[in-house]
Amino acid sequence: MTYDYVARRLNINGIVQGVGFRPFVYQLASKYEIKGEVANTSSGVVIHIEGIRDNIESFCSDLAEKSPPLAHITETSIHPEIVKGFKDFSIAQSIGQAACSTLISPDVSICDDCLSELFDSNDRRFQYPFINCTNCGPRYTIISDIPYDRPKTSMKHFKMCKMCQDEYDDPGNRRFHAQPNACEECGPHVTLYDNSGKKLDARNPVEKTAELLKEGCIIAIKGLGGFHLAVDAENDDAVGMLRKRKHREEKPLAIMSCDIEHIRKYAYVQPEEEALLKSLHRPIVILKKKKPNSLSKDVSPRNRYFGSMLPYTPLHYMLLQYGFTALIMTSGNMSEEPICIDSEDAFKRLSEVADYFLVHNRDIYLRSDDSILKYTAGHTRFIRRSRGYIPVPVFLKKKVGQILACGGGLKSTVCLTKGNNAFISQHIGDLENQATYEFFQLTIKHMKRILDINPGIVAYDLHPDYLSTIYALEQQDVEKVPVQHHHAHIASCMAENRLDGPVIGLSFDGTGYGTDGSIWGGEILIVEDSEFKRAAHLSYVPMPGGEAAIKEPWRMAVSYLYDAFGKDFAGHNLPLFGQLDDSKVKFVVEMISKRVNSPFTSSLGRFFDGIAAIIGIRNTVFFEGQAAMELEMLADEKAKGIYNFEWSSGETHRIFLQPIISGVVNDMERGVHPSTISGKFHNTIIALFSELCEVIRKENGVSRVALSGGVFQNSIILSGLIKGLKQRGFQVITHTLVPANDGGISLGQAMIAAAVANK
User: YrdC-like domain: which residues (predicted)?
Assistant: First the structure.
């Protein structure tokens, strides 16, 4: 009996490096008695196989259906080859090529096998803080270039001992070709220092760190994508001191617990949230608080939620074994600065904050903050897309050219495109200082290199003062495409849902530079791929003091009240006026009436701020969106009724705010509880925009609505509008792959620039 003996060449693209893909191929070849070789290339993985035709076909089928959990194959091409007479199957040396188009795996949490070994006293890696294998550990943050091999990672400084090298070379071993493979003898190690840089003579630095945390100390801990600042979350004094030293007055602090059972002590965990917490990505998940709970009240003040996560590095697990309910694990930086990744830099920048430093000697090449997600309105939603998810691309409906999109000013990300892939960077932060701007530039440089993208088009926000815009305009020999902020929001939602226009876009946020020079943010747009039309917007009101009105919502309250009632607005019985100095109010009124430093805004985010101040919630904020967030937290979701609303006729509808303001003030003067007023206000926004979309559908014939912008982080508004619009027969498009906030607009900018280029 003769067998049909054939050869094939397989080119595999996707996330196929650093995820155990070659060992998987090797073992699959052994199973089907196939000869040949597999190698990493700069464009993915290439496989040459020789064997019986039926076995080859089975091999190809299993390759697609049974690949490792971290692998993501986006394209496979199979080509006939000449039989070369291979005697066995081997993993060949990586092949460098001119074109780099492989996809790099994100950093992922320690796997169950490594976790078991970490706490096995008979294992040679018992309590070793850098245990990993092909299925887990660092990836993106330690890569300097591709192909993904040890010499092109920060592990190049650590020569494997014989035992580690034997594991690395053994195709049957879980650590076969695991690039960060190491052990206590040959790999990185941790060291504990005080904040003067003096090394502590601690036999077990991790155990000593746990003791110091229990004593109330603040510890800067070098992790996977940067430093965390850690304290015991049950220690009021320690949490308060951390806030004071870090200058983070009220913004919620992230916490980490060793397992779901510990999280359940202080928060409710739904099944979808548990799955998210336990996923390999290990994000921070927004969870509803249990009351009472043992955590410090300063962990997440005036908020119904905690941001909690499970450990994702061996070091985290080792620390948390010492009996903490939860540790604060907040970004290792001063407020508004990028997180520290270098130990020397951390000592310089954090010595006034941290009492001690637990550091290691494995370099981090690119910082990456923890990702933040929330399960709401039936889906997982990103608030921040970073560690664990970057650099997995958004897969596009159409191929596009090589484009750089520079994002906005707040919650900055950049986006690079190539073929069907849009690579959005990790969270960069608010571009408001030199340190963050340098991180922004470094991120672009690093991504261009490891993705081999040389953009011929640069997209940027219309706002002339954004550092991202200034950067874009300084670039030479490229086509520059300006993109309106709210157009970019809707385009990002369309792109991740693989949709072409037209759509009705509800683009709601705090700030975005409009085509008329005003500050937009309460917009209904009709969006095509490269163009948009403004169908409706909130009426303009002055924003007294410009940026100052964002930090002091009482200014917006005065502006809305003045707009609704004129000069007699102060005659209304509101707690606001008892909390403010009369001279300050008069000064702001003068700014408004004389139009001094009072740009017009149509922002829905500012409207939320103004309502929050009018009903007595908050006059000043310590972080962006705080007043609107607390207005949502206060809302009685069982409240009935809505306030009156109306809009103008014509091609572009103006939504009048006076009826809503009048209704709110009337309820305040009647003694209605602020929680009821907040509930009615939310109901009003939902009803208003649901009804107005019906009008716009009749005028434009469009039945799809895309929701984007930071306001849609408000679960009441998001859920309510999805329900209200669907009841009216609309197809509703929302974000699940990128943030609705400004962290997603770089994707939209890139898509609009691509559409402009194709016109």
Answer: 203-388
